[in-house]
Structures are given as structure tokens and as C-alpha cells.
Amino acid sequence: MITIRNVTKRFGRTAAVNDVSLAVGDGDAVALWGTNGAGKTTLIRCVLGLLRFRGSIDVGGVDVARHGKRARALIGYVPQELGFYDDLGVAEAIGFFGRLKGLRALGVGGVLEGVGLVGAERKRIRELSGGMKQRLALAVALLGDPPVLVLDEVTASLDACGRDEFVSLLSRLAAGGRSLLFASHRVEEVTALARRVVLLERGVMTGEVPARDLVPHLGLQATLHLRIAAASRERAARLLREGGFEPENNGVGLLVSVPTTQKAAPFRILAEGRIAVDDFDLHAHGEQAHEPEARP
Amino acid sequence: MTTLGTIAGVAGEGRRAHQTPGIPSNIATVARREMREAMRSRWFLLYSLAFAALGLSLSFVSAAAAGGMGLAGFGRTTAGLVNLVLLVVPLMGLTAGAGSIAGDRERGMLTYLLSQPVSRTEVLLGKYLGLAGALVACITLGLGACAAIMAWKGDATRPGSLVWLGGLSLALAMGMLSVGMLLSVLARKASVAVGTAVFLWLVLVFATDLALMAGAIAMKLRIEELFSLALLNPLQVFKMWSLHAADASLDVLGPAGLYATEEYGRWLHAIFGGCLAAWIVLPLTAAAVVFARRSPV
Q1: Which chain A residues are within 8 Å of B19, Cβ to Cβ?
Q2: Confidence check on the interface: ipTM exceeds 0.85, yes or no
């Protein structure tokens, strides 16, 4: 559905994207993964035809560089943060973008119901929370039932709760058979939504892994500091070792290094062994911190 | 029905699959949105009130001073209104255009808008027409109020003069809007675009007059050169055309006016019209070319 061939985008002397090629098939879900400045957002903007580039990008067989408008008709795009007239009402916004997508008759209520925004029709965009704005952007993206969804760090501006809800909503939508290309720096998001992960580093594609292999591939780890009563600590350490972990007794509790996708596993082992955890701390390391990507 | 099905089903009503809307449809959609945005904004309200208030004051004062009898044909009120239009309308057009694209770019709206199935030319023309609509409303409101007062006070100005003045004011506004749009696509920040627009307004209103006078003396410009240079300033074109259209002699403009009347006579309408049309079309075309090539980010 999306074919990217040898795409290079330069800003002055800097190559933000350098000779990247990848394909997203029908119903495929591909995540773009990389640190700040890796070129994720730039590549997405090239796919949308917002930037000129060397190489070629086809969406549904339509050349983005030559027929950007036709290509964008096949794409539903959700940005990091919805940027539109704040004084516009939600229903007005749906109507406006619907008309741009060639929709003559729009049931705004049904559209909003699909993304959990029922009752928000009369609200102004400025009155919406960050999560509601993203839901509105998603509703706009889905207008006209485009076969491709392109998402750019869509949960970056949301709090933890809003993030979980939005990813849950997206994963339901991703099951609808449309192709998905998205940029993210969150492991949970990538493992929930993607089938494949394209790794980008300073504009260069350094590899591609199945989404389930991302965590071991990157070696992302977290350290659990489990506070356990001294009398149970030895037995807890033994159970955790049998479970494949390597706990370290620091005199106050146990320090356990775990992959970021298995943070609950030590708790499960200890619960089965009837050992109480009085308290715990979690320190993630190895995961990229998020800052806005360098913009041209 | 799934969430996806609900949205797709409802949203997909009344259309063929992924058909891109036509150019006129997209331009009209953007224009309606832009006009509504402009009408709600403070600048529109401020300009409308200022224009109407100054025009009304002028109408009252002129009518009172003439004792209900204006100057023959080209009334003194209309003469005052020409000067008011020369000051206010270019400022309105320039700043409205300058703030449009650059403001949207700065607020991140432009990227989102252009990620939809719409071309850059459609966005630019839609914004232009939307702002033009708002300016038409503003000018019509201001001049309409003046016309009503003049009719009530029995001003001798012929209605035709006012209609001409209204039409020429709109043409001047469209030209200045085009220039403003060009500044807007060239500038990265709205403040830079609007600042440049205000500076250009000062140049057009004051500096070019002074420069022409100084040039005429210092460089001993010939009359025809002076007239040609005056045609480069759309405000001068507006002023000369307003006087000419109202049957008033261009003698009031001095030797250059005399020369223009004698040399070009009935061709003056075409010359002035061509000049104002060029000020509308050329900057807008340049804006479209620049906008198509520049990154919206």
C-alpha cells in the first residue's frame, strides 16, 4: 500500500532521511523507531507529500510527489498534536475536513461515537483536553474510510492514562484491515500496534525487526526494587532465580533487572510463592527519552 | 458494527471511494472557513468600526460645511472618502494577507491542513477569496453607512461617484491583499510578515509621494516619467482613477494629471485598470509559485 524507494531528504547539508526504502503492505502495521532526529517525522512528512524529496513514494499506486492530493485522499493522518483553529466547534471541524475529503453527507454523531467523543459536538476545540483533541484528530483521519493510517507520535502529548486509552482505541482500529505506518518511541505502543519495526538512526535505516523482537533487540531493561521482609528475602531470591531472573540483595530488598515488557513477571512469581511485596520502585533504562524531533 | 465500521460507515455516506473533491469545491471550503475566521477576528471588527466611524464623521462634517450642497459632480465628501480609503484600505488588505499563511504556519495549522487531500494552490486561493470576502463586507459596510448619511443630509455627490469609489476601493483592497499574501508565504513568522506589511504601507502611503516630489526636483524628471512612476504605486493609481472616474479633472494632480488627460484621454480607464489588475494578479501568482515550492513546516 505504501512503497518508499531510496528516499533522501536534505535540509541544507544535513540528510534528515538518507536513502530509506521500505514497503507497507495491505493491512500491514509498521512502526518507525528511532531517537530524536532519526528522521521519523521527516519520513512521514515525505509520505504525506509535505516535503520535497529525492527518490519515490507511492501510496496505493499513486505517486506522492506528482499527485499529492490524490495520494493524501488515501491517507488518514494523525499528528502529534492537533493544530487547528481553536475557536472552531467540533462538529464544524468534522464538517470542514469532511468536505475537503469529498464527503457530502456526514453523520457527525456517528463519527464522534466511534472515537468516544459523544456529546462534544458543540464544544470548541480549545475546550477539549489533549486526549479529546487526539480523538478528534483520529475521527478526522478516519473520515471517508481511508485505507492507510499515518500517525506521528500520537501519544506524545498525552498523560499515561490518556496514552493507554488512545493506544487501546488505535489497536481496535488497526484490526480493521487498513495499513498503518506510525512513528513512536514507546515500546508499549509499538508492541500493541505494529507487526514490524523499522529502525532509523540519523536518517539511515539500520534494520527491521518483528515488533515482538524489539525489546530483546534493543536490550531495553528496567530495574525493579522490591521491598520484601528480611525473613522472606532469601526464598524470594531463590524463586526469582528459578524463574529466570538474577536478583541482587541490597540489604533492604531485591534488585531485579527485567525486560520492559515483563515488569509484572517477578510479582507473579512471588505471588505464586505466597511472598508479600511491601513496596517497590521501578527505574527504566535503555529507552529513548522523548523530545520533539528536530524540525527544519 | 465495530468502532471502525461505525466511523467508516457514517463518514463514507454519499461519496465514491476516496474520490478527491474538485478544485472549486476545495477552494470554496477553505474560503468559507477563512471568511468566517476573519469575520470573527478582532482586526476585522476594529477595521470595520474605524472605517465606518471615520467615514461617517467625514460625511457629517463635509455635509455640514457645504450646507447641504456639495461640490459639483465630485462631492467634497467623496474627495474626503478617497483619502480615507487611501489610508485605511491598503492597511487592511496588507495586514490581513500577511497574517494568513504565516500565522497558520506558526501555529502548526498549515501542516495539518496540507496533510488533507487539498493542493497548496487551492489553500492559497481559498484563503485569498475568504479574506477578500471579509474585506468586501468591511468596505461595503463602511461606505454603505457613509452613503446612507450622505443621502440623509442631502449631499450633492452623485451616487455613481460613490459606486465607482466602492468598486475601486475593492480593487485596491484585492491588490493589497495579494501583496500581503506574498509577504505571508515569504516570511517564516507572522510578526515578520505583518511588520513588513505595515512598513510597506508606510512606504506606499507616504514615502513614494515624497520620493516622487524629490525625484522630480533633484533628477529633473520629465512629466511623462513622473506619470509612469506614479503608475507603479497602486495607491496613486487608485487616487487618479477615482478622480478620473468621477469626471473630475486630473488637473488637481498638477502637470502630470494634465499630461495624462491630454495624452491618454479615454484610454486612462484601461491604463488604470490594467495597473490595478496587475497588482492583483502578479503578487498572487508569485505567492502561489513560492507557496508551492516552500516547505509548510
Answers
A1: 73, 102
A2: no
How many domains is chain A partitioned into structurally?
Answer: 2
Instruction: Give CA angle at A118 (A112, A121), nearest 5°.
Output: 75
**Paired strand residues for A24:** A2
* Rounded Cα gap, residues B231 and B256, in angstroms: 11
- State the Cα–Cα distance between residues A22 and A194, nearest whole angstrom: 15
pTM, two decimals, is 0.81
Closest by Cβ to A105, choosing from B8, B13, B18: B13
Confirm whether A293 is domain-assigned. Answer: no
User: Does some domain include residue B279?
Assistant: yes
Mean confidence (pLDDT) of chain B: 82
Nearest to A144 among B12, B112, B115 (CB): B12
Q: Does A292 touch chain B (CB under 8 A)?
A: no
**For B262-285, what is each residue's pLDDT tens digit?**
777 778 889 999 999 999 999 999
Residues A132 and A258 in one domain: no
Host domain of residue A169 = 2-218
CB A48 within 8 A of CB A75: yes
CA gap A73, B18 in Å, rounded? 6
Pairing of strands A2-11, A75-78: unpaired
